[in-house]
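Justification of resources, computational component.

The compute hours requested in this renewal are based largely on the per-chain cost of generating structure records like the one below. Each record pairs the submitted sequence with a full structure-token output. That output is archived, and it is also reused by downstream analysis tasks.
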Amino acid sequence: MIEANWDVETLRVFLHILGAAVWVGGQIVVAALVPALRRVGPEATQAAARQFARVAWPFFAVAVVSGIWNLAEVEFDDVATSYHVTLTVKVVLVIATGVAAWRHSVATNPRRIALTGALSGLTAVGTVLVGVAL
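The structure output for this chain reads:
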């Protein structure tokens, strides 16, 4: 018989998935909206980006904090080397998406805005893929 599991572990995993969903999914949605926002005007794109940042950064923090909490629950003596390698790749991708998103938020050159936005999105999606592999 399969039973529901409502405990602290469920809360920990839920927070991690929620943080990642808002961070990654939000980037995908905003990227899809940029062409329409540009037609309205540069102020529309900038306003949407500012509003997204107000929501996204706290959820990025939720994902990072809950990820650290997840790590605290792992018995590293019982995991294979492949887990360590995969975890290292995920941590590097998390750092990369955060740095790229921050660089994107302070960039003024259109080419740099596009490059850092794309890099943040790609590394965010890569983080999800690697996280699922864990």
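The chain has four helices and no strands. The radius of gyration is 17 Å.
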